[in-house]
Amino acid sequence: MRRLAAIVTSLALVSLPAEAGRPVAGTGSVAGKGRDVVNVARTQGGVEAERLAARAALADRLNRLATWCNDKELFIERDRIWRKVLEIAPDDATARKGLRYARNVDGSWKEPPPRDLKNIGKKFLEELPKRESEAFAPYGDTLLALAKAPERSAPEREGLLAEIRTIAPDHAGLHELLGNVKLGDTWVLPETATAKTRRAELRALVKKLVEFGAPVQPDVASDQEKALGVPWKSVVQGENVRVLSTGPEDEALALAKSCEGAGELLLFALGTPVRYPGAYTLYVVAGDGEKEVFLKNLPGIKDDEIERLTGLEGTGIPRSSNVALFGKDPLRRRDAAVRHTIANMLALTLGITDKTAWAWEGIGQYLTRELVGTRLTWFVSENADPAAANLRGKLMTPESNWIQEAFTLLSTGTATPLEELMLRDLDRLDVAGALTGYALVAYLLEGQPTVALDFVTRCAKAEETPATITKETVQMTPAELQERLVRWLSERR
């Protein structure tokens, strides 16, 4: 079914068979008559005769609907529907006359001059969608029945479905066959409807975490912590997270609560309990000259490590799960605190590390953004992908829309194929790959929540091929999943 959906999506973008555009006889308006001519066509034999008869009957119904619009003074809608008739039957006399076409000397149609139109009978606009749906329904029903016939070949079936999608894109039977669902007035993937509900639940959880948060209490530095040589002005302790800061207590409290909330958010996202590292501690060392003193006094840190860490705004402390934050910007410190905390839990609990870079980076970026509103901490090296500096800069801005950017990337066919992306470690992950991973994470966490955990943990184990993982979790090949991801992104934006 999923494969069929992908096939029809692509077929809808190509031209219909040549016969589809031929003039159809008998499409003029017949006042007061709504009888289809499909049964007559059956006597002519073959699928093509039935298809053409269904189109002729549709053109007839649309002509009568356009006449109804004219009677109700819905002049914009009248002309819109007559133009639909011409898409089905280009030489339809009733529609051509209604739109004021004339013949050129060579017999071709002469485009009429534009005219100012208004819908005067606006009270009838509410009735029009139902009438229009009723006009298209028999056509879709006929072609759908032809497509479902046991004797139908695959190319015939796919061509018929593509034609329904082109001419009657809102036909309920087609969408039910493809597994789509109605969201408001639009047919969408089931994952799109699921994602809308999931995002609402996620926002409600984040609101709860922000308003209430986990209990965090003031504490005092231990002798070992005092020996690090910097003045700890604020020390707070939560159930899982300890924060020591040379800055104000309100920031220390906010950092601890955000990092405690990250565990609840990860539990919601993947549906499994997660663990924090034991004695997990965040050090906020942002004052002038404090970073150098702190690093010098860290036990077991080598000189070359001190040199490397000095150039960072935030880092995991070597041979420990603890984190040090050196940046001057409080927003970046909070973003980094949550991002590192999520990374620690992913690795400790689920085995998701930088070896499965798309998931490690994608889940971290996605949940950090949901919790604190930013995506400022990247583990993708800038040096590894200098050509993507512009894209990276764009994604770092507060107003950036990562879903739109991912759709643009994936819909142009320039993104790394998922089958390859799923095998990359962090050293081989570029900015575009990180963006694609973010989109795939959003799709799984929002649209496929029941299989998201299985999908990402099997990728992390690296014991199966991407094709096996996608087939057994989402019942698609990696290529089909990528096609479906593009459609989902287009519906989610």
Question: What does this molecule look like?
Answer:
With 493 residues, this protein is of the alpha+beta class. The protein is built from 22 helices and ten strands. The strands form three sheets. It has a six-stranded mixed β-sheet with strand order 5-6-7-8-10-9, with helices on one face. Strands 1-2 form a two-stranded antiparallel ribbon. Strands 3-4 form a two-stranded antiparallel ribbon. A hairpin with a 2-residue loop joins β3 and β4. α1 packs across α7, α11 runs parallel beside α14 and α19 crosses α20. The protein starts with a helix and ends with a helix. The N terminus is likely disordered.
Oligomer: single chain
Major sheet summary line: 6 strands, mixed
What is the molecular shape?
elongated
> What is the helix content?
55-70%
List the topology elements.
Elements: H1 2-11, H2 38-42, H3 47-71, H4 75-88, H5 93-98, E1 102-103, E2 109-110, H6 128-148, H7 154-167, H8 172-177, E3 181-183, E4 186-188, H9 190-211, E5 217-218, H10 223-226, E6 234-237, E7 242-245, H11 249-270, E8 281-284, H12 290-297, H13 303-310, E9 314-316, E10 323-325, H14 330-350, H15 357-372, H16 389-396, H17 402-411, H18 418-421, H19 431-447, H20 449-461, H21 466-473, H22 478-492
Parallel strand pairs: 7-8, 8-10
Antiparallel strand pairs: 1-2, 3-4, 5-6, 6-7, 9-10
Helix pairs in contact: 1-7, 3-4, 3-6, 6-7, 9-11, 9-19, 11-14, 11-15, 14-15, 15-19, 17-19, 17-22, 19-20, 20-21
